[in-house]
Design goal:
The protein is α/β, with parallel strands linked by helices. The chain folds into 2 domains: about 5-190, Rossmann fold; about 200-260, Helicase, Ruva Protein, domain 3, CATH 1.10.8.100. It is about 35% helix and about 20% strand. The protein has 10 helices and 9 strands. The protein has helices spanning about 15-25, 45-50, 65-75, 110-120, 135-140, 150-160, 200-210, 220-225, 230-235, 250-260; strands at about 15, 35-40, 55-60, 80, 100-105, 125-135, 160-170, 175, 180-190. The strands form 2 sheets. A 7-stranded mixed sheet has the order 4-3-2-5-6-9-7. Strands 1-8 form a two-stranded antiparallel ribbon. Strand 5, helix 4 (about 110-120) and strand 6 (about 125-135) form a beta-alpha-beta unit. Helix 4 (about 110-120) packs across helix 6 (about 150-160), helix 6 crosses helix 10 and helix 7 packs across helix 10. The longest helix is centred in the last third of the chain and has 15 residues, at about 250-260. The protein is elongated. The termini are far apart. About 30% of the residues are buried. Residues about 5-10 have low confidence and may be disordered.
């Protein structure tokens, strides 16, 4: 039975074996490692992960037909969860910290990442994420202050995570062949990060600022804070700057002030 990729699920199956091997190596899987694979598709990456003999391999696969094929192919070697990744409580999958692999569907990749970053569990459920994104999205994640790609995604990603680019992957490594290149990124949890009571406050602050990214920061400040002058003075903000000129740390501080205001 030939499995056709579903456009509605953003499926592009990775078929280049050399690239697959390189991706698996990034995770440094040991015999006591527990691994989670998101969107295993036809099981090409799964096969190479299993060769590393991890303690456990969990798979989240939304597509029912693919889930059946994966169970037939790998049987008891995998723990299969046939659900949408956005509806799964990751911290309940395993008591072990997971090495997470994902060839994420292009259409929901940023939603998945944002969900993982903003879940407010005190203990990390993962060891690291090894995730593939559309190159353009990866560029936004990696972007620094004062660059055109810098925005909400850069600020959110760098809040709790150290992000490292591993390599770009050509479209020809997939079937069906996408119209764009992909990039593999590795995310490692920071030992210390800026504490916020509710991550939603960071989302709100960055949304308000970057919805007006061409305007000076006085506008979004007035929108968020009734007494914005006090915030400007406290954080020593230059109101002639634009949203892309503020560092991630400044956004975390603004989110903290917004949090205090709401309480």
């Amino acid at each position: 039975m030939i499995i056709k990729a579903k456009k509605s699920l953003g499926q592009n199956f990775l078929i280049d074996k050399n690239i697959i091997k390189k991706i698996v190596e990034v995770g440094n899987i040991l015999s006591n490692s527990s691994v989670l694979e998101i969107g295993a598709g036809t099981g090409n990456l799964t096969e190479y992960i299993l060769e590393k003999k991890p303690k456990k391999l969990y798979i989240i696969e939304k597509d029912e037909k693919l889930a059946v094929k994966l169970k037939e192919r790998f049987d008891k070697k995998i723990n299969l969860i046939n659900k949408d990744v956005l509806e799964v409580s990751e911290n309940l999958i395993s008591s072990d910290k997971l090495i997470v692999y994902g060839n994420l569907p292009y259409n929901i990749s940023t939603q998945i990442l944002a969900k993982w970053i903003t879940n407010d569990h005190k203990s990390n459920w993962y060891e690291n994420y090894i995730l593939m994104f559309q190159k353009e999205v990866a560029d936004r994640i990696l972007a620094h202050t004062n660059s055109k790609n810098y925005g909400r995604l850069s600020i959110l990603s760098n809040w709790k995570l150290d992000v490292k680019k591993i390599f770009n992957i050509k479209a020809s490594c997939f079937a069906p062949k996408p119209k764009v290149e992909s990039t593999l990124l590795k995310f490692t949890p920071k030992k210390k990060y800026f504490e916020l009571k509710n991550s939603k406050n960071l989302e709100i602050v960055t949304r308000v600022f970057f919805n007006q990214r061409r305007k000076k920061i006085k506008n979004p400040l007035n929108q968020l804070f009734k007494k914005s002058d006090k915030i400007i003075e406290k954080l020593k903000l230059n109101i002639d700057l634009r949203p892309q000129n503020l560092s991630p740390k400044t956004y975390y501080e603004l989110a903290k002030e917004y949090e205090i205001l709401r309480n």
